[in-house]
# Entry
Amino acid sequence: MLPAEPCCPPLTERELTAEEAQRTAAMFKALGDPVRLRLFSKVASHPDNEACVCDIADVGVSQPTVSHHLKKLKEAGLLASERRGTWVYYRVEPSVLAAMGQLLSLAPAPAKVA
Amino acid sequence: MLPAEPCCPPLTERELTAEEAQRTAAMFKALGDPVRLRLFSKVASHPDNEACVCDIADVGVSQPTVSHHLKKLKEAGLLASERRGTWVYYRVEPSVLAAMGQLLSLAPAPAKVA
DNA sequence: ACCTTGAATAGACGTACGTCAACATAGAGG
DNA sequence: CCTCTATGTTGACGTACGTCTATTCAAGGT
# Structure
């Protein structure tokens, strides 16, 4: 799995290269599972965009499955984790979120002559 | 697969319900494949956000595979298709794109007391 | 009617994915 | 040390997914 750094202009501006697509698709893929998306939204909507696993683990699947999904989100570059004593905290990477948001903006609207 | 209508406030605002997550994850999932993301970006970056299949089919996979992926994007609500004579045109749904972009905006930043 | 080109469908195949139960690891606190 | 709680890891299982070849459907042109 690629490092998943922020990437690329709005999708409406120009087509992605194969490499850009691979890197970027990895991030979308990470959010493409309902359980992962819920976990991510739970972290993102917590104060300071950060939450303990114990605060977000109630999503209807077993604890190992939660851990597995958090790992996937981390590998995709969308979350970072840090152990503080007994608990492990996950935090969203705001820059990555912003990059994905920009990717989906349809700002320029090329050649809409009207 | 759900109808995939536009949905939901920014991920930072509140956590998604299970149903919202399922609906929304389907859209992210559709963009979570490199080939599909390239196809989508090709359509999105064409004039009027619309392109003939013949204009975008060169992504390194067979023609049936391209057709398969375009169908998936359509089922996810991200593209619409229309036959015009010999050719079939695919067009992005701007509202859906905008909704996804808004979902990824981290506007309010709750409780960053600093 | 026939053939040609553009695009969708059907079916098959290998791989990746989501899930779980069982086990392992990490600190905290007696 | 031992144990309790919080997370992560392993290995297995069924299903979904991406891809292909072969075939079919749709429109045009001759």
Chain A touches chain B through 48 residues (CB under 8 Å).
